[in-house]
Amino acid sequence: MSFPVIIREKSTSDQILVLIPVEFPFQQISVKDLIVEKVKQEVIKKNDYYQKTTISEREQRLNQNIIAIQQDNTIKTSTGNVASSLSDALPDLNEEIEKALDSFLRNGFFVLIEGEQYTELKQQILWRQQLDIVFLKLVPLVGG
User: Fold this and answer.
1) Rounded to an integer, what distance in angstroms lies between the CA atom of residue 127 and that of residue 125?
2) Which CATH class is domain 3-52+91-137?
């Protein structure tokens, strides 16, 4: 039997950035298990995207995103050679997991389960239907 949940990643302005469906083989998992599974799903999605698209397609999509951001006047971007960053190696799963765990320990993001902040990797989460899981992504302040 598997235990499905949907992780919502949100910004501090309460905007949903991404929904990530995951399934666990156990009814009770740790915060660490949750973070690891979320990272696995993100790496799988990114690797799949890189395998299905060419560098020029990724560059075109990035340029469209930059134009949309500039039109919103929310971020000023500089022009440059984006093709080199688009051809970088696919993300390494173990490296991404370590980054995410380190970020959690340094309060780079919060994990909220049913609105309660979980602060330790070893804290246990008991599955139930429609369990509310939120990863709250923090935005670093300029200069700090």
Assistant:
1) 6
2) alpha beta
Q: pTM score, two decimals?
A: 0.72
> DSSP letter string over the chain?
--EEEEEEEEETTS-EEEEEEEEESSSEEEHHHHHHHHHHHHHHHHHHHHHHS-HHHHHHHHHHHHHHHHHTTS--------HHHHTSPPPPHHHHHHHHHHHHHTTSEEEEETTEEE--TT-EEE--TT--EEEEE--PPTT-
> What is the tens place of the pLDDT at every residue in 41-100?
988 888 776 677 676 766 666 665 555 555 544 444 444 444 344 445 567 889 999 999
Q: Are 28 and 125 in contact (CB under 8 A)?
A: yes
Tell me the domain boundaries of the chain: 3-52+91-137
